[in-house]
Amino acid sequence: MTEYQAPLQDMQFVIEEIAGLDEISRLPGYEDATPDLVVAVLEQAGVLASEVISPLNHVGDQQGTHIENNAVVSPPGYAEAYRQFVDSGWQGLGKSTAIDGQGLPYLVHSAVAEMWYSANMAFALCPLLTSGAIEAIEMHAPEDLKQRYLPRMVSGEWSGTMNLTEPQAGTDLAAIKTRAERDGDRYRIRGQKIFITWGEHEMSDNIVHMVLARLPDAPEGVKGISLFLVPKYLVNEDGSRGQRNDLKVVSLETKLGIHSSPTCVMSYGDGDGAIGYLVGEENNGLACMFTMMNNARLEVGMQGVAISERAYQHALAFARERVQGVARGQTGRSTIIHHPDVRRMLMQMRAITQAGRALAYYASAQTDLAHHAESAEVRENHQRRVDLIIPIVKGWCTEMAQEVASLGVQVHGGMGFIEETGAAQYMRDARILTIYEGTTGIQALDLMGRKMLRDQGRAMTELIAEMKTLDAPAGNDDLAVFMAGFELGLEALEDAAGWYLRQAAEDPDLGSAVGVDFLLLAGNVTCAWLMGRAALAAARHIAAGSDDSAYPHKISTARFFAEHILPRAEAQRRMVKSGSVSVMAIDADDF
Ligand SMILES: Cc1cc2nc3c(=O)[nH]c(=O)nc-3n(C[C@H](O)[C@H](O)[C@H](O)COP(=O)(O)OP(=O)(O)OC[C@H]3O[C@@H](n4cnc5c(N)ncnc54)[C@H](O)[C@@H]3O)c2cc1C
């Protein structure tokens, strides 16, 4: 089993050349985020990821979790690894210093998180959910709850969860039934939640559940949902851990992948009612959840990049060792990496992964600018870009991860289908990414509706205008080929976007019917743009005298993207412009 090695050089390159660390470290509060510090942070995280967390990935997959005496038992080594993660302060890396975090840019957090997800995605979901719960509390909870819960959550001693889903309420949260009744200045929560990631475990000393529930007099639908903090153990006045709250794990789901992440059915209030505390205002819970949705979706997009990287590394190691056939130009039987078709698969995996990394880091840097730029107008401009691009990051990176993980199996031949090599695990683990935190269909609805129609295409027009400024110097064949492909892709995106904005009013099914095709088209072109910027930066380094082979390789990878991935944009344009007619032609009852 090959262990994960953090691709530090590419991460650093993308952070500096594409995401623009320079600009980020000029933002107020981020002055310490110098390139040297960022490299040191990435190196340290890389060691923990490859030496401690990655070796647990396969055993976690094979052994999974189970319930013993009402508690979830994690695979061997997990509790110790989590302890190391907490002791070295990783949970608070990107959190603000006001809540005892380390105050590093979100961009740096994202790069570090990529390593945790690559090393062991199921394990890393635990800190991810804690991070989401911290955000909800920091932004919306009253001061006393912040003081009582945040320090131990930011340190990682206490973990967090998100409790939205119920059997009848998945995508459609309006159907939530979990009840909350006022009891003095707190609430009693009763109901069942399903699919709760890391809902119960013993790695942390307490678990802080963020639970969506409905008050007895709440209006129907999404305007009647409130958000509550419901701890596994109540917390005493002095901050110490108190008695056990009235909640428990009922069972764990048996599932396709991420076996070592317990997916819990949770029961609240079988006795007197679980004690919960209101976060935000009554009936405004969904809005509180939405404020942290952007980051959560970006994180899942990053998981797509991370699992793609891991699958690529695994396939590459296999292709370098497996001897089969005689490749042209080789003497004797050769390793399969010499066969052009295997090279095509590896290039596809590499190009998609690097493009996804560029997209996700770019979105992370835009998030930093949207929150920390000095002028309100600049913050607003970056927020518009973030809002537009988040469904694309989530949708594109996770859909493409399916392709990359599947190619990883293919490179292995028959051994890819055999669990022993580990290639199949990445494919199984990746499969959840297009589902949780909003399916790809829901990302597409968000893109086509809230992000395109609502502002009549303003944010998309701005993005397209900026992409049009990409210009390569003459005299480099690879860059010339790249630019020719990129211009065609960009033209397809502009045409499809304009057509959609004109047609949408006449066809109410259009956004949902062709939204995923449009999202993938936008993702392909935006990724090509960022790969083009990467290639131009690499060309500048070469022109300045660098002989680092990473630079010509970046240019070749960008050219490959333009020649072998981006042509999909043309097909996607045609699919979008075919509209909803044939999608909706057969009646639901006639299927
Ligand atoms: C392993 C795992 C971990 C999870 N972790 C958590 C967690 O920690 N906390 C939590 O609260 N939830 C969690 N979830 C739940 C997850 O977020 C939901 O599964 C997801 O939101 C989809 O809901 P659903 O499963 O009910 O599917 P459904 O909503 O039933 O969707 C089924 C299909 O219909 C489509 N669809 C539904 N509505 C629409 C629409 N309006 N327009 C177009 N298409 C639509 C969907 O895109 C999908 O293809 C987890 C799920 C899994 C499997």
Question: Could you characterize what this model shows?
Answer:
The protein is α+β, with helices and mostly antiparallel strands. The chain has 19 helices and 12 strands. It has helices at residues 8-18, 21-24, 35-53, 56-63, 78-87, 106-140, 143-155, 285-291, 293-321, 340-372, 376-411, 414-417, 423-430, 440-453, 458-468, 477-503, 510-543, 550-565, 568-578, and strands at residues 66-68, 71-73, 158-163, 179-183, 186-197, 206-213, 226-231, 233-235, 241-244, 247-252, 263-268, 274-279. Strands 3, 4, 5, 6, 7, 10, 11 and 12 form an 8-stranded mixed β-sheet that branches. Strands 1-2 form a two-stranded antiparallel sheet. Strand 4 and strand 5 form a beta hairpin. Helix 3 crosses helix 6, helix 9 (293-321) packs antiparallel against helix 13 and helix 16 (477-503) runs parallel beside helix 19 (568-578). It is globular. 51% of the residues are buried. The model has no long low-confidence stretch (mean pLDDT 97). The structure holds flavin-adenine dinucleotide. Residues 162-165, 170-171, 195-197, 255, 263, 432, 435-436, 439, 441-442, 445, 512 line the site of flavin-adenine dinucleotide.
